[in-house]
Design goal:
Elements lengths: L2 E7 L2 E8 L4 E5 L9 H7 L4 E5 L8 E2 L8 H14 L5 E6 L1 H12 L4 E7 L10 H18 L1 H12 L17 H19 L5 H6 L3 E7 L6 H13 L4 E3 L5 H4 L1 H13 L1
Parallel strand pairs: 3-4, 3-6, 6-7, 7-8, 8-9
Antiparallel strand pairs: 1-2, 2-4, 2-5
Amino acid sequence: MATTHTLDVPGAHLHYEVRGTGPLLFVIGSPMDAAAFTPFADALAGDHTVVTLDPRGISGSTLDDPEQDSTPELRADDVAAIMDALGAETADVFGSSGGAVTGLALVERHPRRVRTLLAHEPPVLELLPDAAERRAGTEDIIETYQREGVGAAWMKFMITAGFDLEAEGAPDAPQEPTPQDLANSARFFLHELRGTTRYVPDVTALTGGPARVVVGVGVESGNLVTYRTSVALAELLGTPPVEFPSDHGGFLERPVECADVLRKVLAG
C-alpha cells in the first residue's frame, strides 16, 4: 500500500508516492507518472522503500506557470527536494527514458545524493552521429502536434523512435485519451520533449564522482533509437549496458523479472 504526498517546491507542487520498506529507491519517468510504475514499484517494495512521482507539470504535479518548460535539471532538483523531505541523504535511482535523463542530471547536480543510477534507455540523442537529423526529427514531432494534434504526433513519435507499428507485439493503438492524457501529452510535446532529447551528459561528472552509473537496455530494443543512445552512453562511461527483459517498456510488461535484474545491479 502506497502513501501519497505533496511537496511544494519553487514553481511546482509535486505529487509523490512511497511504498515498501528497506533501502530508498526512486523509480522515475518523464513523462510517465507514478501510476504507470505501480506494478514495477510493487515488485520492488518487498525489500525497498520505493518512491514514485509525477514529474512537474504531469498528472498530479501542478505548476504555478503552466507554460514553464520542463528540463532535466529542474526535474533533478525536484527529486533531490523529495529526498530532503524524506530526510534521506542518499538513494538509488531507476530512471526510464526521459526519467533516465533526469537521473543523469541528478548525478551531475547532486552527485553525493545518488548511490547507484540505473539509466534505462535514456534518449540522449546528442550522442549519436546523426544528432542534427534527430534534432530536426524532434522539431517535426512538435510541429506535428501543433498542426495535427495528439494522435498524429504520437504516431510520428513512435515511428521516429523506431517502433514497427505493424509488427507482432508492437504497442497497441492508444485508447480514447482522457482529459488528463491530453494535458500530459501537451506538456510532453510543447514543454518537455525538446529539453530532454537535447540534454548532453557530462561524462566526466558521471564517472568522476561517488555515484555509480549503469545503463540499461531492453533485449528486444535493438531497432529503437534509445538502444543506440544507450550503447553510446555506456561506451563513454566505459561500462557495458545491462540487459533487461523485453524492450523500452519492459518493466511495464514484465515487472517482476525486471525488478529481479535491478536488484542484481543494485547489489553489485
